[in-house]
Sequence to fold (566 residues):
Amino acid sequence: MRVSKYLLSTQKETPANAEVISHQLMLRAGMIRRNASGLYSWLPSGLRVLRKVEAIVREEMNKTGAIEILMPLVQPADLWVETGRWEKFGPELLRFQDRHNRDFVLGPTHEEVITDLVRKELSSYKQLPLTLYQVQTKFRDEVRPRFGVMRAREFLMKDAYSFHLDQETMDNTYHAMHTAYSNILTRMGLEFRPVLADTGSIGGNMSHEFHVLANSGEDLIAYSTGSDYAANIEKAESPIPTQTRAPATQAMTLVDTPNAKTIAELVEQFGLDITKTVKTLIVKGATEEAPLVALVIRGDHELNEIKADKLELVSSPFEFASEAEIRDAIGAGPGSLGPVGLTMPVIVDHSVIVMSDFAAGANTEDKHYFGINWERDLPLTTTADIRNVVEGEPTPDGLGTYAMARGIEVGHIFQLGTNYSKAMNATVLDENGKSQVLLMGCYGVGVSRIVAAAIEQNNDDRGIIWPEAIAPFTVGILPMNMHKSHRVADIAEKLYQDLANAGVEVLMDDRKERPGVMFADMELIGLPHVVVIGDRNIDAGVFEYKNRRTGEKQDIPFDQIVEFLT
Ligand code: ATP
Ligand code: MG
Ligand code: MG
Ligand code: MG
Fold:
């Protein structure tokens, strides 16, 4: 590819409203453009990377024996009613009606559609086990789209679904997927960790997430220093009983909150005895107009009396999307929470809820969630930090102690059991002609998220450093002043052809730009190998080669360059 005939929309300035490095670099390198919140166009270089990720995922899926299909993005509501998720899924599910007033959704995932397909398509145990997959657009109306394609509303996912009659083949397929996911991320040169994950509201009995390790990751993972044991912090278990832990003694600062107050200040204000009462703190800043903070403290306080029988929800910080939801959760009628402001603590059974506007001034459409298990005396950061375990504690396997790392969830595998198949009556006849409900597994990879995650791990102050397997082009050719020097133009042209003939993906910068601009662009877009051609090296009969990752330069004789790069 020649830059003059390409769309290389690089930009020098760091874009405003791009918080993480991958988002900044994807915009600066001309990989993506924002269309609306959480919606992006993929420009040529971005698409080339996306397709490479997709190809690797597809190859590894095919290796496991999974078979590719393609299901519709638009799904009829009826199927979601059948599984109960029409009610349960919440506002992430984008619902709409067609011209006949029939309800539809934009698919955030495809368990319903695949189960419907399979119940009609399969009849006999002889067709099992079976794994089907697709690579397809998903839509989730994320409460907080951010970080570019990392948490988008429309994104590309590979989702696979397996069907079984017995746990043994279920386990085999799960294991094969675990291996495939490891292969995918290894091939891309990414540092990752598979971790035990919560099976959450879907139920099921086994789940792992695959995390690309990066400080910008939204998830916190706890891993063992002495074994392979690792778990998402939500799932991590401690062998130490909670009661024996030392109570919190020191003040903790609210981070990420513009007008931060310390917990100590809050505690003093309400006269709480944190050493015996505080269990969980949940702080939430909602929208620009109505930032909220909810403080949930379990204890024996009796400051006020509001009857509530839904206390469980209160202890689950992830459930709150609005003040109304908190009211609902605690069974409080309108007004009973009092005015927004640090004025009205509400005692619900053994919990105190404080709504506050002290997150006001958050400059952002983002919603903030904060949480902490106070008994453990831990620093307060984001929701992902609601910790069951702390650094240095023994792990459940007794083989090491806990260490923490931040991760970006790029894959998730799940044994679903019969949750969907039972609800949707997906059965086949077994050997004895008896009808049996299918066991199911599901396996997702965030194809578009991987592109961003890879950049989080591979960059420097000059730009992206692509791992070779997913680079948009493998080699960049930088001819210096080729519009003035015929020698440079001819040799560059020949190298371009030779490399193309050898099957190397090349990008040649044939613009009439200053060398400085060309170098900066090449480093920004991050091609692994760069060949510089100038009159000086031509005199010496060599190309100047530069490795993007190591920065190492090397002179390579003309007749050895193709071999060197292939
Ligand atoms: P998260 O915890 O980040 O919201 P999830 O657990 O909701 O992700 P899954 O339902 O497990 O996501 O979907 C499978 C994969 O799809 C995830 O592991 C992730 O890589 C990707 N994914 C999920 N949501 C998004 C999104 N909004 N934008 C891009 N990729 C996403
Ligand atoms: Mg999600
Ligand atoms: Mg998740
Ligand atoms: Mg997940």
Observations:
- The chain is about 25% helix and 25% strand.
- Residues 58 and 517 are 37 Å apart (CA to CA).
- The radius of gyration is 27 Å.
- The first strand starts at residue 32 and ends at 36.
